[in-house]
Each structure stands twice: as C-alpha cells, then as structure tokens.
Design goal:
The complex is a heterodimer of chains A (175) and B (475). Chain A is built from 5 helices and 5 strands, in the order ααββαβααββ. With 175 residues, chain A is α+β, with helices and mostly antiparallel strands. Chain A folds into 2 domains: 40 residues, no CATH class; 106 residues, Ubiquitin-like (UB roll), CATH 3.10.20.30. In chain A, strands 2-1-5-3-4 form a 5-stranded mixed beta sheet. In chain A, a hairpin with a 5-residue loop joins β1 and β2. The termini of chain A are far apart. Chain B is α/β, with parallel strands linked by helices. Chain B folds into 2 domains: 221 residues, NAD(P)-binding Rossmann-like Domain (Rossmann fold, 3-Layer(aba) Sandwich), CATH 3.40.50.720; 207 residues, FAD/NAD(P)-binding domain, CATH 3.50.50.60. Helices cover 29% and strands 23% of the residues of chain B. Chain B has 15 helices and 22 strands.
Chain lengths: 175, 475
C-alpha cells in the first residue's frame, strides 16, 4: 500500500519542485506541500512551521538522555516533533525528511503521552527496530503531532542516549 | 585546519557538515576527493532505486557544499601505490603523499568498495557478486557486465542481508512499478526482457539470525506479482532459552504470515533457504544451468554466531548465483589498512598504525596524529545510513576536541603543519578539465532530473561522456 502511495505521488509531482519528486510522503504530509513544502524542503535548520505567540502554544520540554533540559519551546496544534525541533535549532536529525525511511528522528516520550497517541504503523515500527537506544515509549519524531488534548498540552520529549552529543546549542566560540 | 577527505559519500558529508557548523572561522578548509565523478557514494550508487526517500539526505549534503570553505573534487582517485589497479579508467590519479603535503588533516571516508567473495564460489559465467548487479542498475562508472536476465529462470542469492534483498526485489518487482524511479532506461529494457521465475535466497544460519531488516523483508512480502514459498514452521519456533529482540520477533511474525500473495498464485516466486552453505558450483555448459552444492548446517552449540555442517548435502539447479556476503575496504586506498580487520584500525576515529611489514618510523599501535577515518572505512561494512551519520558526528567531535588540545596530543603526524591555506594540490589545477566540482555536479544533477521529467521518471542518469559534454569539457 505504501508503495502504491509512493507511485501516486510520483505521478502527480508536477505541482512540486522537481527535486522533490523523489520524496514519497505520507498523505498528511502531501497535504502540506502547497503551503509549506517549499520551506520544508530547503535544507535549512528550520522546520518550516509557524511559532505560536508566547504563552498560547503547546509547551514542549526537550531534554537530553539524562533528563537535563535542553530547551523549552512552544508549538501549534498538529505540528510534528521533528519540525518543531528543527524550528528551534534542536539537533534532531531527519535524514529522510519525514518519509519513514530512517530512524534518525527517534525520540522518547513520557508513558502517558505515548499511551494516548495512535499506535505506530508497521512502517514506523520497522524503522524503530533499527533505532539506537530503543525504549518502550520510543517514536519517530516525524510521526508524532503534538496536541493540547494530551497531557494538558505540556509535553516532555527526550533525545536518546546515542544522540547526546548532537545538540547545536552552545556553539564553540572559536577555533 | 585544512582537511582533506578521501571519499565523498554520506560519511564524508556528515563529518564535513558537523565540522563546518561548529567551526565559525573562515580559516578552515575542507576538500573532498572522490574517485567517482559524482558525489554521495552509496547514496547514488548503492541505494536501491525504489527507495528514493533514503536519498533525501542529499539535500543536507547540498547545503553543506554551499559553504565557501568546502570544495569537492570528483573523478580524482587517491592512490598510495603507483601501480595499483584502477577500476575507473578516466579518473585523475593523485598520490596520497600529495594530500600529506597539502593538508594539515586527513580523513579516510573511503568506505568498503570491494565485495567479499565466497571461497567455494569464485566469479564465473554462472557466479557474480551482488555488487556487480547494484553497479549495473545504478550505472556505476565501473560499468560491470549486464546480467543476462533474458536467459535466466532461476537465480540464487548467497547471503540474506539488505543488499541481497535489494537485488531480489529488483529482479522480482514488475518493471512497470520501477519505471518512475531512478532506473536507467538500458536497465529497464533488460528487466522487461527478464525470464526469471524464481529467486532462492540462501543463508547458513536460521531465521533468528537473518541479516535483513524487517522493512526489507516486508517489501519482499508485498511485491505485487510474486509470492514466497512457505518457511517450514519448525524453523520459526523460538528455541528454548533464546532471548528474542523486538526486531527479531517482528521479523519472525512476518515470516510466519508469509507473502501477501499466496504461494503458487503468481508466476514469479521466491524462497528463503535457511541453514544452507554453498560448497561448490558445477556446470558443463556456460549458457546452461549450473548445479549448486549446498551443505546443510546447524548452529554451533559452542558459538551461536557460527554455522557448522550437519554432514547432509543437497543440490540446487540454478542459472545464476549472486553472492552477497558483505564488503571490505580496498587495501590500496591507504597504507594503514589492517588486513586482519578488512578496514582501517581506529580509536574514536583516530587512525592507528597497524602491524606494518618494514615498519618505517611508525610504531605499530600508535596514533597517527591529525589522521582520522569514519564510516565503513573505519567500522567495516555494516549499519544503515543512521549508523553512518552517528559515527560521522562522533568522529567530527573527536577532530574538534583534538583541535582544542592539538599541541598536547601524542603521536607522529605525516601531515604538513603549514600548507598553502586554501589551494588544492597543484596536480588538481593541472588536471582541471577532468575534475568535477560541486557546482559542476549540481548542473549535471539538474540536467539528469529534467531529462527524467520528459520520460516521467525521477531522473535519467548520465555517464561520464555525457557529463563531460554537458560541462563543455570535450576537446
């Protein structure tokens, strides 16, 4: 089924920039192409999402594997964790750009949040099988959309141990 | 730091990207050399055409290449022995000593480009390495022979890793489904004439030790017009006392469920043959079928990673054997190749002097200062892109940390502490007409995509001659 979807998207690719033709996306993603796809596809660090007005969004505490806070950020209903991380320069990779073909955006959620989300599909689980430091509450960041309905809109997202050296905050001052 | 990177694949780009994002100063330079004229290594010449989403990582590589401190030199083969075999005839030859003389730092990201062969199955008219098939369908500049699919009915793959399953999937997928992807037209026309009916995938150990990932297995199960021979259920029972990982248990469940199409309902079929190890291949007619002798195996009770023969054997009549048993580094790419490992020896990414015959002034086991290795050149050929990325970032962090404490670290350095700050080796300028820069590549890349557009496909790959013509380099 995924394959069929991929082919459908390839065949309607004329609306999209040509270099994006090779990126079959899940349907929810395809729907955002016309408005956001361009920003998303440009290889910048930013997530191509809008930041909510301070105090109005869903609050996400990004923490490292030891539980130390990296940054607290705000995002809008329906934004995915990978895009949020990129928007706020938190170095969560997305090598395949959200097409469920790698495990580089692996994140660890709180049990309560994990339980209330829809279960991951086979394709996401296949990728999680290859993730480093997999836990019972692991997900791919690109597949998890934040919502106010879970945990009163206050989430904690932990990065797995293997990515502990990947934060871009605190750039070296000189070399 | 003026860093030369040997090899321009994913590992090289991830290291470069990390270094450039952490080094704010203009003074640094990173020059990447690849023996192929196109960058991105296995992302271009390894990833299966029907996995286009994996190639999205090149957007990040493109971004890295826009940094003015970064330069790419394609079609340049770095050699440390003057008379080594060169598979790319048109590549500019540059001695490794020239990198020593022109750079302060060196990173080997040269991968594992050579296929590991099976001692009982030397290459012949009936036996080829899987890498030849991959190079054929990706139009690799080494231009291997075209596999004669129009006269094959039965193909046997030895090894069940992801490369093996990539090849099986390419051979079993209906060609019309592959057409929109990055498959050269010449490859499409051979696939369309294919008479293959069955693909056997042989491995010496069982389902719990299968090398493929669940994703690749699932894709096999879902091929539109093919079906899998059921696996004997007794092989899929968890042995008592065995700890089964989440990935293993999901993969076993998938094998129990079998292919989407019931076996026998399709013209094309495939099978996973577990606990079989090839012992020989015999054929009287170079164009006719061959007899593959297989020893039956079981897991060695003393070492679960080993398979030992049970004494039983069987024969399989097959038209072509394709060996897919992993890869190793090219010992001609570096004088520090550790042949016992099949790749460079490293500690946290720093190259370690192996036991060298003749020894020179280098002490075996010591660190070569300012010399590093990343990716498969350092780890051996294992792991998907995510593993390569993490390794690359770790090696970049080692380099950054050594820059901080550089003068204090011990070890001999072969590099030049004071080369020209920005220029590549003078040989590069002398051969400029044959060297491909990143901006040249982007021009080729755009043209490949636009040529593909008119055919309704992802891209139409160019060969070296076409690329040269596009760049106006034919004189």
């Amino acid at each position: 089924m995924l394959r069929g979807l991929a082919l459908d998207l390839l065949s309607v690719s004329s609306r999209r920039p040509s270099y994006l033709k090779a990126c079959p996306k899940r349907d929810t993603f395809a729907a955002t192409w016309s408005t956001r796809g361009f920003h998303r596809s440009i290889p910048t660090r930013h997530g191509g999402i809008d930041r909510p007005k301070p105090g109005t969004g869903i609050v996400i505490d990004f923490k490292d594997s030891k539980g130390t806070l990296i940054k607290t950020v705000e995002a809008n209903e329906g934004d995915d964790i990978l895009s949020i991380a990129h928007e706020y320069d938190i170095d969560l990779e997305g090598a395949c750009e959200g097409s469920i073909a790698c495990s580089t955006c692996h994140v660890i959620l709180e049990q309560e949040v994990f339980d209330q989300l829809e279960e991951p599909g086979d394709d996401e689980n296949d990728m999680l099988d290859m993730a480093f430091g997999l836990t019972e509450t692991s997900r791919l960041g690109c597949q998890v959309k934040v919502t106010k309905d879970i945990h009163d809109g206050r989430w904690e997202v932990r990065l797995p141990a293997a990515t502990r050296n990947m934060f871009v905050d605190g750039k070296r001052a000189s070399h | 730091m003026k860093l030369a990177i040997v090899g321009g694949g994913a590992s090289a780009f991830y290291v470069a990207s990390r270094l450039l994002s952490r080094l704010p100063q203009d003074a640094h330079r990173i020059h990447v050399f690849d023996r192929l004229w196109a960058p991105h290594g296995l992302v271009r010449y390894g990833v299966a055409p029907d996995h286009p989403e994996v190639k999205n990582c090149t957007h990040k590589f493109d971004h890295t290449a826009t940094d003015p401190r970064f330069r790419f030199f394609g079609n340049v083969n770095i050699q440390h022995q003057s008379e080594q075999m060169n598979v790319i005839q048109h590549a500019v030859q540059l001695p490794l000593s020239s990198l020593y003389a022109n750079y302060t730092h060196l990173l080997f990201a040269s991968g594992c480009p050579l296929p590991t062969l099976h001692p009982a199955l030397p290459p012949s008219s009936h036996c080829i390495p899987a890498l030849n098939v991959v190079h054929w369908y990706t139009q690799h500049p080494s231009l291997p022979a075209v596999p004669p699919l129009e006269r094959l009915k039965h193909v046997t793959l030895i090894g069940n890793g992801n490369v093996s399953l990539d090849v099986a999937r390419m051979l079993l997928t209906p060609p019309d489904m592959l057409r929109p992807y990055d498959v050269p037209e010449s490859v499409m026309s051979v696939l369309e004439r294919s008479t293959i009916e069955h693909v056997s995938i042989v491995a010496r150990r069982g389902p719990f030790d299968a090398a493929f990932t669940t994703k690749e297995l699932r894709e096999m199960m879902n091929i539109r017009d093919a079906s899998m021979a059921p696996i004997p259920p007794e092989l899929l029972v968890v042995p008592t006392g065995k700890e089964v990982s989440r990935a293993q248990s999901r993969s076993i469940q998938l094998m129990q469920k079998g292919s989407k199409n019931p076996y026998g309902s399709t013209k094309k079929t495939w099978s996973l043959e577990f606990f079989r190890s090839p012992v020989g291949l015999a054929s009287e007619d170079p164009l006719g079928p061959a007899e593959l002798s297989l020893a039956h195996t079981t897991i060695d009770p003393a070492n679960p990673r080993r398979a030992i023969p049970t004494g039983e054997t069987s024969r399989l009549s097959t038209d072509l054997v394709i060996t897919s048993l992993g890869f190793h580094a090219d010992d001609s790419s570096s004088p520090f190749h550790d042949s016992s490992l099949g790749h460079l020896r490293t500690e946290a990414g720093r190259v370690i002097v192996p036991d060298l015959p003749g020894g020179k002034d280098l002490v075996s086991g010591s660190v070569l200062k300012n010399m590093y290795a990343s990716g498969w050149a350092s780890m051996g050929a294992k792991g998907v892109l995510a593993a390569t990325m993490m390794d690359a970032y770790a090696v970049a962090d080692t380099i950054l940390s050594d820059l901080d404490h550089g003068d204090a670290s011990e070890g001999v350095s072969l590099m030049n502490p004071n080369p020209h700050p920005t220029n590549p080796p003078p040989e590069i300028d002398a051969a400029a007409g044959s060297v491909v820069g990143y901006e040249d590549w982007k021009k080729i890349d755009q043209e490949e995509i636009s040529r593909g557009e008119s055919l309704g496909k992802e891209r139409t790959r160019m060969g070296w001659q076409e690329a040269r013509e596009l760049l106006g380099r034919t004189t």
